[in-house]
Design brief:
Blueprint (H helix, E strand, L loop, with lengths): L1 E12 H6 L5 H4 L16 E6 L7 E6 L7 H6 L4 E10 L15 E2 L4 E7 L16 H12 L4 H11 L4 E7 L3 E6 L5 E5 L2 E5 L10 E2 L4 E6 L2 E6 L5
Antiparallel strand pairs: 1-4, 1-10, 2-3, 2-4, 5-6, 6-7, 7-8, 8-12, 9-10, 9-11, 12-13
Length: about 230
């Protein structure tokens, strides 16, 4: 399993989103509060973001080491700010490689995508371009190949083909934030400065709300919609 988050709104530093919150991704890497599968997320971390200057190309920093041990990132994160971020800490699926290329967020050059869960890769559509042989990377390549407009449809199809799959997705393209809940937790904090989606709340702000299972979340232009994945029950 993993823990991940997505941010879309006014520019915030990666330190504000990942390291400084009392229950942020840094703490979730060794003491998650709501994780249902596994105890630690020590098999790598990654952060992807878009330039404030307006470039459409996402930037990424990924590592196979635990987030708590990466002092280089801790020293630079306060200086890295973005209006759109996808970040994750990883607990590798048994048998999957522990390497930076297997760590979210994955990208097709436009979108950033993180997968929290597990899936039998034999049920996924055949496609090229996976960044790693791990299940999350292959799932990401399948989603990119189909297109993010079809995210909900693909998740329903994969979930039907693999009833044990857990398919929580967070994806962003700089102006839009998409997510799914399928088998694990996701919470949302929507304020005047933007919206954050996270596997679990990173603080005790009472405005956090829990997203029901098997739903699609779509945030853009300051608005957020949450809709049931039809046909998923």
């Amino acid at each position: 399993m993993c823990r991940h988050l997505g941010w879309l709104g006014k520019p915030r530093s990666l330190a504000e989103l990942m390291l400084e919150p009392p229950h942020g991704l840094l703490v979730q890497s060794y003491a998650p509060r709501r994780q249902r599968h596994g105890l630690l997320n020590a098999d790598g971390w990654g952060a992807g973001f878009y330039d404030i200057a307006g470039s459409d190309e996402p930037r990424r920093w990924r590592s196979a080491m635990p987030l708590w041990g990466d002092t280089s990132f801790a020293s630079v994160a306060p200086a890295l700010s973005s209006h759109c971020v996808v970040a994750a800490v990883r607990s590798a699926t048994v048998g999957m490689p522990i390497e930076a290329s297997a760590t979210a967020p994955f990208t097709d050059g436009t979108w950033l995508l993180s997968h929290n869960g597990v899936v039998d890769t034999s049920v996924l559509p055949t496609c090229a371009g996976a960044e790693s042989v791990c299940d999350s990377a292959i799932l990401a390549a399948s989603i990119f190949s189909r297109g993010l407009e079809s995210l909900g449809e693909l998740i329903i199809e994969v979930g039907a083909a693999d009833p044990r799959a857990r398919l929580n997705i967070v994806a962003a393209n700089g102006s839009r934030l998409l997510a799914t809940t399928w088998g694990d937790t996701l919470s949302m904090l929507h304020g005047s400065d933007g919206v954050v989606l996270a596997s679990e709340p990173y603080d005790d702000d009472p405005r956090w709300i829990d997203i029901p299972d098997r739903h699609l979340i779509d945030a853009r232009g300051g608005e957020v919609s949450v809709t049931a994945l039809e046909g998923s029950r």
